[in-house]
Amino acid sequence: MFFLSPQYLWLMLAVPLLPALYVWLLRRRGKPAVRYSNVAVVRAAVAGRHWRRHVPPALFLLAFAGLLFAASRPVTRVALPWSKSTIILAMDISLSMRVRDVQPNRLVAAQEAAKQFLKEAPKNIEVGLVTFAGSTQVAQRATLDRESLVAAIDGFQMQRGTAVGNAIVMSLSELFPDHGLDVGDMTFGSRRQSRSLDDKVKPAPKQITPVAPGSYTSAAIILLTDGRRTTGIDTLEAAKMAADRGIRIDVVGLGKVDGLASSPDNYMAIYMQLDEPTLKEVARMTGGEYHHADTAEKLRTVYENLGSRTQVQTRETEISALLALAAALLMMTAGGLSVLWLRRID
Question: Which tens digit of pLDDT belongs to each residue from 106-157?
Fold first, then answer.
């Protein structure tokens, strides 16, 4: 916890003086009370209800202390409802996803985990689906329709190649359609110098002012892959584009890190090795987290955790308003008890 206006904390030194002042006032009023006591006062004292007179002042004291503390504008980490409105699931559908080290195989395990994620995510969060292998497609634009997303997940068709960077850029183009991000131009720009007269002139990518990684609170990307980039845009270059836009990328690495899983394409073993250093760097650069899952159960757990995390997120929040509200409620309670028990408004 820290304070935006810590100078007001000095006023808290006056709080211990208030009980002393209250006791002094009671003693000063007690002298004539003994001289002019009556039967009603004696009966109240004998009945043991004299403690009630001290409750309202004690509540007022707590309320006063709360207001002083609120004036210092404390900031603490509080779990708040998830504010992101769009999540893009970027999922690897390369041929290596048919390997069975994750049962029944990597692709089916990934599909089931993604569908479980859709169940865990809040219903008011739009989810989009990007698939990638050698090429990249938007399998389903961001939508609240979970049935359409499930149908798109069930319709995966595996392909050769792994273009991790393309998947990140394609996801960004879905989140920022006005930024002019074109995966084709970024991948084959030097080969597309010659255009036909029918080709439309596309706007240049929008120049942006970089922001803090993970600071864009309206969207996030969850990237799942089981290998390493074999084609397309450089992965870290794409991650830099996401970081500059404040987009957080949570990365899930699926399968064996050493790539020694049994496969009909053993000669391709090098491409089935998880490029963990690069994937971890993608998560670090964008303010996300890296998760490794080498079994179907671990993968389900990872996606469940990601889904549940979309319910709430912890962030630094000023709590002055909550303290002021609590102080107001204490004052109202003190006033009500004073009227109820003492039959007067102090």
Answer: 999 999 999 989 988 888 889 999 999 999 999 999 999 999 999 999 999 9
H helices then E strands: how many in the chain?
11, 9
Please tell me the CATH code under which domain 83-186+206-310 is placed: 3.40.50.410
8 A C-beta contact, residue 251 and residue 283: yes
Q: How far apart are CA 138 and CA 130, in angstroms?
A: 5
Q: Model confidence over 201-221: pLDDT tens digits?
A: 566 677 889 999 988 888 899
- Name the nearest CA neighbour of 1 among 80, 83, 73: 73
Q: Which amino acid is at 316?
A: E
CA distance 253 to 287: 17
Residue 80, CB-side half-sphere exposure with 13 Å CA sphere? 12
Domains in the chain: boundaries: 2-78+318-342, 83-186+206-310
- Between strands 219-225 and 290-293, the pairing is unpaired
CA distance 114 to 132: 15
A 10 A CB-CB count for 12 gives 13
Measured in degrees and rounded to the nearest 5, phi and psi for residue 120 equal -80, -30
Supply the DSSP symbol for 227: S
Instruction: Tell me if the bond preceding 122 is cis, omega within 30° of 0.
Output: no
Structure tokens at 44: 């109240």
Using alpha carbons, select from 109, 95, 143, 130 the residue that is nearest to residue 238. 130
Q: Residue 42 above 70 pLDDT?
A: no
Choose among 84, 81, 79, 89: nearest CA to 302.
89
Residue 51 has pLDDT above 50, yes or no: yes
Query: What is the β-pairing status of strands 248-254 and 290-293?
Result: parallel
Rounded to two decimals, the pTM is 0.66
